[in-house]
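Reminder to self: tokens first, then the designed residues, so the page reads top to bottom the way the pipeline ran.
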């Protein structure tokens, strides 16, 4: 039994894949899905869809097809062997899902640990940078203090020398002397 995709069935019926999907959605339970949730069709399914197509062309509604002629269109029944293989596929799929969930949990744990390590490294690096900045500030503060002392001594000398220098006498200018004579 070779399985066909929705696109392949649509090509064989001469309709669009959307039309096939609409029919399959209406007649739920009549068609089989694969483990990924995609519909797969056998030759019997193709004949069933062809019958649905013919009845629709004759003017029947999908509800009438669903309710009516059970000889033409029947829900698909799976043989016991297919049911067992489907059950095995489901249990295999469940095991795969559990394995994937475990891998996801492990990856999340590793990611959390890695993030924690990175944050610790960054904190240590910031602490070292802050220590370097603190040392630079202390050095600058000491240098500013030395400069202030030097300026203080220099300004004291300048003030003392200004106090000791005699004030220059006011000399009258030549023109003011001339006017004062008259």
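Designed residues (182 positions):
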């Amino acid at each position: 039994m070779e399985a066909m995709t929705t696109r392949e069935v649509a090509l064989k019926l001469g309709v669009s894949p959307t039309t096939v999907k609409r029919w399959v959605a209406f007649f739920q339970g009549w068609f089989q899905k694969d483990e990924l949730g995609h519909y797969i069709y056998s030759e019997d399914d193709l004949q069933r869809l062809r019958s649905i197509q013919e009845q629709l062309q004759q003017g029947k509604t999908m509800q009438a097809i669903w309710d009516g002629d059970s000889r033409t269109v029947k829900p698909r029944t799976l043989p016991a062997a297919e049911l067992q293989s489907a059950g095995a596929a489901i249990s295999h799929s469940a095991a795969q899902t559990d394995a994937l969930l475990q891998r996801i949990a492990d990856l999340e744990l590793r990611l959390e640990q890695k993030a924690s390590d990175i944050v610790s490294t960054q904190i240590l690096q910031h602490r070292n940078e802050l220590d370097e900045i603190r040392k630079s500030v202390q050095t600058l503060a000491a240098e500013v203090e030395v400069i202030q002392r030097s300026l203080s001594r220099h300004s004291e000398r300048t003030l003392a020398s200004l106090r000791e220098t005699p004030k220059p006498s006011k000399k009258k200018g030549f023109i003011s002397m001339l006017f004062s004579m008259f």
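The beta strands are 32-33, 39-40.
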